[in-house]
Write a structure and sequence with these properties.
It is a single chain. By secondary structure, the protein is of the alpha/beta class. The protein has two domains: 10-261 and 464-483, Aldehyde Dehydrogenase, Chain A, domain 1, CATH 3.40.605.10; 266-452, Aldehyde Dehydrogenase, Chain A, domain 2 (3-Layer(aba) Sandwich), CATH 3.40.309.10. Helices cover 39% and strands 19% of the residues. It is built from 16 helices and 22 strands. It has a seven-stranded mixed β-sheet, sandwiched between helices. A six-stranded mixed β-sheet has the order 9-8-7-10-11-21, sandwiched between helices. A three-stranded antiparallel β-sheet has the order 5-6-22, with no helix packed on it. Helix 9 links the parallel strand 10 and strand 11. The longest helix has 25 residues, at 99-123. The radius of gyration is 24 Å and the shape is globular. The mean pLDDT is 96. It catalyses: an aldehyde + NAD(+) + H2O = a carboxylate + NADH + 2 H(+). InterPro entries: Ald_DH/histidinol_DH, Ald_DH_C, Ald_DH_CS_CYS, Ald_DH_CS_GLU, Ald_DH_N, Aldehyde_DH_dom. It is an enzyme of class 1 (oxidoreductase). Residues 21-482 form the Aldehyde dehydrogenase domain.
Length: 489
């Protein structure tokens, strides 16, 4: 194992916390111990909340001019850039991600997105004239009506295991640029890559209390963050089931809640775009082993050409290399845990019981006595009611379904409790875009994809509330204040 990050302690308002019962972070590729991490004691998480409240109420960060905040956050990102090697090695070790994915998709794309979020924040107005009819201004003797965007306050940022570093950046940078104080709580499965943010905050000179990073093996700390009256907002990325719990926990104090939750996205191929199915199928599982909420795990194709597609997709999956994440030839690493692999096995069994056929894969690959590997799997699914077509799996499993016509394809795609993402492929971009507009989902890629600070993501239905990235992702961390100003008479 390459040299990973050596900072394994929580960061509470400028202090490294050395106490707490240690828990093991496991390498899912070989089931070895990556590190023993001291859990943040619950009283220290409470202190992080109180210090965040103090820092915010003091105005030391919230009242700082935006360009000065941008300078501090730029220095924080520059520090992270100097830590590329140990950071990437840590992501490979704790998450089992192929090195190329960890380096390109998390580290480089994450930092580019974060710098873009700073630029975007500086480019949009945070105090603007509020349009009011002239007659109302005269009758009310109003000189000026303004809409002002101000920080929410104290934000709890709770991130998932599958992309811990980039998800932390996606929450921290807009929240901090907006002037909030933030407590970051990463997944217990992949906490080490998030502990670097404490050292980065210290190196950049972030005021004490503005950022804390807490870690734990269970959920007691997360529950304190979602229920504490001094926390104003919870931003969570993870499963829909946990998202429901967070909403219930936040309800008594009426916290703002931003949720990016599960997905069961569909990729629709029009008849003239079937040459792209192999590439589209590989994109679902390559790099992440299918552990991505936006993964388009339902492939919808014309019914009369389904057998042809199954052959093409199976051939594509045969070319993917399952292996250790440190091996540069690997395209599919392990799943995060034994429990997640067992879930994939159960889903395949239930899918087959309900009429699906395993065309390729379906179980544990040979040659891996240790590690939580699962074969790239193609299922021929008879209808959208099948468990493999309805449930989020978070594994390298693709369901192929046939549709009668475009109306049927749209119906199948929308027949889901989720609505996070989607894809449409067609030789005529206008025709494909017409289909995309009919999908009930937060984002649709038509023949291409874009990950950018300027492009929002988020879900319809049970895929979440609110947006991340883009102007909406900044506004998510702001309150709106109306200022009405007139002369004293």
């Amino acid at each position: 194992m390459e040299n990973i990050l050596t900072e394994h302690h929580s960061y509470i308002a400028g202090d490294r916390v050395t106490g707490g019962e240690a828990f093991t972070v496991e390498n899912p590729a070989d089931e070895s111990r990556v590190a023993e991490i001291p859990a943040t004691p619950l009283p220290e998480i409470d202190r992080a909340i109180r210090e965040a409240r103090r820092a915010f109420d003091s105005g030391i960060w919230a009242d700082m001019p935006a360009r000065e905040r941008a300078g501090v956050l730029g220095a924080l990102l520059s520090y992270l850039e100097t830590m590329r090697e140990p950071l990437v090695a840590t992501m490979v070790a704790e998450a089992g991600q192929p090195r190329m994915f960890a380096e390109r998709s998390q580290f480089h794309s994450g930092l580019a997105m974060a710098r873009g979020m700073i630029d975007l924040y500086l480019s949009i107005a945070h105090e603007e004239s509020n349009p009011v009819p002239v007659g109302e201004l005269i009758r009310g003797r109003v000189g000026l009506s303004l809409r002002r965007h101000e920080p929410v306050g104290v934000v709890a940022a709770i991130t998932p295991y599958n992309a811990a570093f980039i998800m932390a950046l996606q929450k921290l940078v807009p929240a901090l640029m907006a002037g909030n104080s933030v407590i970051l709580r990463p997944s217990p499965l992949t906490p080490i890559s998030s502990l670097i943010f404490g050292a980065a905050a210290e190196a950049a000179g972030l005021p004490r209390g503005v950022l804390s990073v807490v870690v734990e093996s269970g959920s007691a700390g997360a529950e304190l963050l979602t229920t504490h009256p001094a926390v104003d907002m919870v931003s969570f990325t993870g499963s829909t089931a946990v998202g429901r719990s967070i909403m219930a926990q936040a309800a008594p104090t009426l916290k703002r809640v931003a949720l990016e939750l599960g997905g069961k996205s569909a990729q629709i191929y029009l008849d003239d775009a079937l040459g792209k199915v192999a590439t589209g199928a590989a994109a679902v599982i390559a790099g992440t082993a299918g552990q991505a909420c936006v993964a388009a795990t339902r492939m919808l194709v014309p019914r009369e050409r389904k057998d042809e597609v199954l052959e093409l997709v199976s051939r594509a999956y045969a070319g993917l290399v399952v292996g250790g994440p440190a091996d540069p030839s690997t395209t599919i690493g392990p799943l995060i845990s034994s429990a997640q692999r067992q879930r994939c096995e159960r889903i395949v069994d239930r899918a087959v019981d309900k009429g699906a056929t395993v065309v390729r894969g379906g179980g544990r690959p040979t040659g891996f006595p240790r590690g939580y590997y699962f074969e790239p799997t193609v299922l021929d699914v008879p209808d959208n009611g099948n468990p493999a077509a309805q449930e989020e799996i978070f594994g390298p499993i693709l369901s192929v379904l046939g549709y009668r016509d475009i109306d049927d394809a749209v119906r199948i795609a929308n027949d889901s409790p989720y609505g996070l993402s989607g894809q449409v492929y067609g030789g005529d971009p206008a025709a494909a875009t017409h289909v995309a507009r009919r999908l009930r989902t937060g984002a649709v890629n038509v023949n291409t994809a874009l990950f950018s600070a300027y492009a929002p993501s988020g879900g319809y239905k049970q895929s979440g509330l609110g947006r991340e990235r883009g102007p909406d992702g900044i506004r998510a961390f702001q309150e709106v204040k109306h200022l009405v100003i007139g002369e004293l008479r």
